[in-house]
C-alpha cells in the first residue's frame, strides 16, 4: 500500500513496534529532580545545530535551543532537520532523560500529526529512540494513542491499521491498574475500530490478518477477557465505556 494512506498505518505500526507500548505496569510516575552539571560547548545557534555538520552529542542548553526551534518554526525543512538531530541525540541515554525533563516529548509528539509524511516519520523515529527510557514510555503512550485514535476514526484506514504488527505487550494497556487516561483511549480505540469494520462490512467477510497483527490482538480471547474484567473497575467513566463495548465482543 502506498501514498499518504499507507504512510499513516505504517507510521502507527512503527510506533507500536518501537517499544512505546511495553511494560506500562512497571512505569514510575516520579520525575527526577535537581539540576544537571554539564560542560558547555561553544555556543551555536539552533539552526546551526541542525545543518548536519555538527557531530557532537548536544548538551542540555543546546537541546533546549533545538526544542524551542522545533516548537516555534513552521518551516518544514527546519522542522525535519531538527527532528533528525533530536532523534540522533535521543539515542544516548543521558539525552533521553534531558529531553523529557525539558518538555520535549510532547513537542516531538505533536509532529506525528503533521501533514508532511517525512516530518511524521522523523518524529516517529525520534519517539522510538526516546521510548528506550522507561520513564519516557508513559508520556509517549499518550502521543501514540492520539495518533491511533485519529487513524481509527477513519474507515478508509481501518484495514491497513489492523494489519500493523504489534507486540503482545500492547494488551497490557487494558489492565485495570493502567492510568485512567490510557484506559479510556485504548477502549475508545477498540470501539472505533469495531465501528469502522461494521461500516466497511469487514466483520461479515472476515479478511485474513496475520498472527501478531493489531486485529489478531484486539479480536482475540485475551483482549476480550481483559475488557470484560474492567466492568468492575473503580472509575465510573471507565466502567461506563466498558459496558458500551461488551455487547460487541
Automatic annotation (TrEMBL):
Residues 58-142 form the Armadillo repeat-containing domain. It comes from the Eukaryota. Pfam families: Arm_2. One of its GO terms (cellular component) is mitochondrial outer membrane. InterPro entries: ARM-like, ARM-rpt_dom, ARM-type_fold, Armcx_regulator. Keywords: Endoplasmic reticulum, Growth regulation, Membrane, Mitochondrion, Mitochondrion outer membrane, Phosphoprotein, Transmembrane, Transmembrane helix. It is a single-pass membrane protein. The chain crosses the membrane at residues 6-25. It is found in: Endoplasmic reticulum membrane; Mitochondrion outer membrane. May play a role in cell survival and cell growth. May suppress the transcriptional activity of p53/TP53. PANTHER family: ARMADILLO REPEAT CONTAINING PROTEIN, ARMADILLO REPEAT-CONTAINING PROTEIN 10. Interacts with the DNA-binding domain of p53/TP53. This is Armadillo repeat-containing protein 10. It comes from Papio anubis (Olive baboon). The lineage of its organism: Eukaryota, Metazoa, Chordata, Craniata, Vertebrata. The gene is ARMC10.
Amino acid at each position: 500500500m502506498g501514498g499518504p494512506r499507507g504512510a499513516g498505518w505504517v507510521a502507527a505500526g512503527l510506533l507500536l513496534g518501537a517499544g512505546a507500548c511495553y511494560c506500562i505496569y512497571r512505569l514510575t510516575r516520579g520525575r527526577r529532580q535537581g539540576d544537571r552539571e554539564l560542560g558547555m560547548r561553544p555556543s551555536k545557534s539552533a539552526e546551526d545545530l541542525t545543518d548536519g555538520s555538527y557531530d557532537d552529542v548536544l548538551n542540555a542548553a543546546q537541546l533546549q535551543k533545538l526544542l524551542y526551534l522545533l516548537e516555534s518554526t513552521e518551516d518544514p525543512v527546519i522542522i525535519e532537520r531538527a527532528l533528525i538531530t533530536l532523534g540522533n541525540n535521543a539515542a544516548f541515554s543521558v539525552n533521553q532523560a534531558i529531553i523529557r525533563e525539558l518538555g520535549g516529548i510532547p513537542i516531538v509528539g505533536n509532529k506525528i500529526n503533521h501533514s508532511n509524511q517525512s516530518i511524521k516519520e522523523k518524529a516517529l523515529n525520534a519517539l522510538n529512540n526516546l521510548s528506550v527510557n522507561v520513564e519516557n514510555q508513559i508520556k509517549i503512550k499518550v502521543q501514540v494513542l492520539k495518533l491511533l485514535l485519529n487513524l481509527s476514526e477513519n474507515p478508509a484506514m481501518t484495514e491497513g491499521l489492523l494489519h500493523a504488527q504489534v507486540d503482545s505487550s500492547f494488551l497490557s494497556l487494558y489492565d485495570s491498574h493502567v492510568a485512567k487516561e490510557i484506559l479510556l483511549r485504548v477502549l475508545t480505540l477498540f470501539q472505533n475500530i469495531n465501528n469502522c469494520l461494521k461500516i466497511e462490512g469487514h466483520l461479515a467477510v472476515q479478511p485474513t490478518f496475520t498472527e501478531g497483527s493489531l486485529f489478531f490482538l484486539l479480536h482475540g480471547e485475551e483482549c476480550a477477557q481483559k475488557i470484560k474484567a474492567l466492568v468492575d473497575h473503580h472509575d465510573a467513566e471507565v466502567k461506563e465505556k466498558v459496558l458500551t463495548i461488551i455487547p460487541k465482543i
